Amino acid sequence: AIMTSKRADLKDSEVKKLAKEIIQAEEEEIDKMKKMIKEME
Question: Is Coiled coil a UniProt keyword of this protein (predicted)?
Answer without folding.
Answer: yes
